[in-house]
UniProtKB/TrEMBL annotation, chain B:
The keyword Oxidoreductase applies. Keywords: Oxidoreductase. InterPro entries: Cholesterol_7-desaturase, VanA_C_cat. GO terms for molecular function: oxidoreductase activity. Residues 96-270 form the Vanillate O-demethylase oxygenase-like C-terminal catalytic domain. Coiled coil: none annotated. This is Vanillate O-demethylase oxygenase-like C-terminal catalytic domain-containing protein.
From TrEMBL, chain C:
InterPro entries: Acylphosphatase-like_dom_sf (IPR036046). This is Acylphosphatase.
Length: 196, 284, 77
């Protein structure tokens, strides 16, 4: 989920990440239940297959029909950077965040309430902002953790939010464990208030 | 939303007779209303939330009720009076989508190879041959006939792959019956059907039955076969977006294989059915 | 590639029916020319794959909310 949009994420044999509207154009089945074969995604319901660009590649009920190129899924922009997957609306021209160095993904945790902004997330962790990457991602310095860490959050509106963390690829196991232990703290900080 | 008059005027199955044994009063929900089934010494009656008594009848192994004072007659299924047939009922299964979507999925053959793989279809035989769809104007119901599909294991009594011939009937917005080639007797049809209890616009309880000629399988064996198929369908039904049935053609993209779905939707539209229908959202 | 004349009859509410026709023609990569249009009947010349024109026909049967399609005929031109 991005905001209130349901997205299907998948990676083909070519290693490329794709983000599509999570809905088969034929009869509305969620494509996230589909099957990846090579570089195509096949819908679980009627087996309609889509190539890596979102174009329909086959309709099994009518094997002799060549689907026109205009039968396609709604495709979002998707890219890998800093050990995380980044998705943007197709009409947005923003660059994929450039994140220096090699990063290893650490944890993806769900919280009840989305942080208001990256400053609120930094404060919630009790960290110090090193550099802001986007409105939703930054490199932070956390007390008692030897390395800078990469943190990003995804607002899912009424579904809460996801907070993703990554550590430098060269970081020690002790650092990775310390970062993963932030999860409990984050869930507490961004908990739905019982009064609400 | 208040149910439209087509929806309001129908009879609905709300459980099997046995489901109401042993309890004096059992709550049920129908068309966003709380009802109570009272059992007084084995005689069942239905009342609404204000205690007003509703019409009820026992037919096809189920208890039926209606919110209408002047309901349309419940459709006939003469096969229920034929000797030697066995009736197996599965009991209610809750599904988080409009009951209209369950009917539409039931009419669909194109999903067999992918959802019921190696039972009702195989990927190598995915073609849906053209079939006939017609509206019986007298009875106001839809038939899809001359439906043929290759099935590796068409029923609990089947011993191998066969071209199965099907007929589908939709006599009610929330009921559908499949007539399929009987694997062990010539020139007769086995029946499989759904009586759907619409709970909310996007939530329902499906009561299914089979009425077959089968001397070998136990009731439990027949039931397991049907339940296995239905649970595979439920996974699809609960993951179609939106949960209500879209009638605006811009939502989806049908092919000739979807002719029965289109006929069903046209019939709902002609009867001005609105309850359980998704309104088209241009932004979505 | 074939060309077919597709004729719709019914209570067509011309404007929304034409919008639906252009929506599906675009969606299915069919070249379309409206040859006649009235509230009772609309005729279109469609060029494209024969099986895709068949999809177009099925897609048109349901019609928008304010449209009731009674018949669709597809003729070889």
């Amino acid at each position: 989920m991005i905001g209130d949009k349901d997205i299907a994420l998948w990676r083909g044999e070519d290693g490329k990440i794709r983000a599509w509207e999570n809905r088969c154009p034929h009869r509305g089945m969620r494509l996230s239940y589909g099957i990846v074969r090579g570089n195509t995604l096949t819908c679980l319901y009627h087996g309609w297959s889509y190539d890596g660009t979102g174009g329909c590649a086959g309709i099994p009920a009518h094997p002799d029909l060549t689907p026109p190129k205009t039968i396609r899924t709604k495709v979002y922009r998707a890219a890998d950077s800093g050990g995380m997957i980044w998705v943007a609306n197709p009409e947005e021209a923003t660059e994929v965040p450039a994140i220096d160095g090699a990063w290893a993904p650490n944890r993806s945790i769900h919280v009840d309430v989305a942080p208001a902004n990256i400053a609120a997330l930094t404060e919630g962790i009790g960290a110090e902002l090193q550099s802001k990457i986007t409105d939703h991602a930054a490199i932070l310095r956390v007390p008692n953790i030897e390395e800078d860490i990469l943190v990003a959050f995804l607002d899912m509106k009424e579904h809460g939010a996801m907070i993703h963390t990554a550590v430098p690829a060269k970081a020690t196991e002790a650092v990775a464990i310390a970062v993963s232990k932030l999860s409990t703290h984050l869930r507490q900080v961004f908990k739905a208030s019982s009064a609400a | 939303m208040k149910p439209d008059s087509f929806t309001h005027s129908q009879w609905y199955a709300i459980g099997r007779i046995g489901d109401f044994e042993g309890a004096n009063a059992k709550p049920v929900r129908l068309l966003s209303q709380d009802l109570t089934v009272n059992n007084s010494a084995g005689v069942l009656s239905v009342a609404d939330a204000e205690g007003r008594s509703l019409q009820s009848q026992i037919r096809y192994g189920h208890l039926w009720t209606t919110l209408s004072d002047n309901p349309r007659p419940l459709y006939d299924m003469p096969e229920f009076d034929e000797p030697d047939r066995r009736l197996v009922t599965a009991g209610g299964v809750g599904v988080r989508c409009s009951g209209l979507r369950c009917v539409e999925n039931f009419l669909d053959m194109a999903h067999f190879p992918f959802v019921h793989t190696d039972i009702l279809g195989v990927e190598d035989h995915s073609t849906v041959e053209n079939y006939d769809v017609s509206m019986d104007a007298d009875k106001d119901e839809i038939w899809a006939t001359k439906c043929k599909f290759f099935q590796p294991l068409a029923s609990a009594a089947a011993t191998g792959g066969q071209m199965t011939e099907y007929k589908y009937r939709v006599p009610h917005p929330y009921s559908t019956i499949l007539y399929k080639t009987c694997p062990i007797r010539e020139n007769v049809w086995d029946l499989v059907g759904l009586f759907i209890q619409p709970v909310e616009e996007d939530e329902c309880i499906v009561h299914s039955f089979i009425l077959v000629f089968d001397e070998d399988n136990t009731d439990t064996g027949l039931l397991h076969f049907q339940q296995n198929i239905f649970l595979q369908d439920r996974m699809i039904l609960e993951n179609q977006v939106p949960r209500k049935l879209p009638l605006d053609p811009r939502w989806e993209l049908p092919t000739r294989a979807d002719a029965s779905s289109i006929a069903y939707r046209r019939w709902l539209k002609a009867n001005e059915l609105q309850w359980g229908i998704a309104l088209f959202d241009k932004a979505a | 590639m074939v060309t077919r004349r597709v004729s719709l009859e019914g209570a067509l509410s011309t404007e929304s029916c034409l919008a639906m026709i252009s929506h599906f023609a675009r969606r299915l990569s069919l070249t379309s020319t409206i040859t006649s249009a009235s509230p009772r009947s609309i005729s279109i010349m469609l060029t494209g794959d024969e099986r895709v024109i068949d999809m177009f026909e099925i897609a048109c049967w349901l019609g928008p909310d304010d449209v009731t399609v009674d018949t669709i005929t597809v003729e070889i031109v």
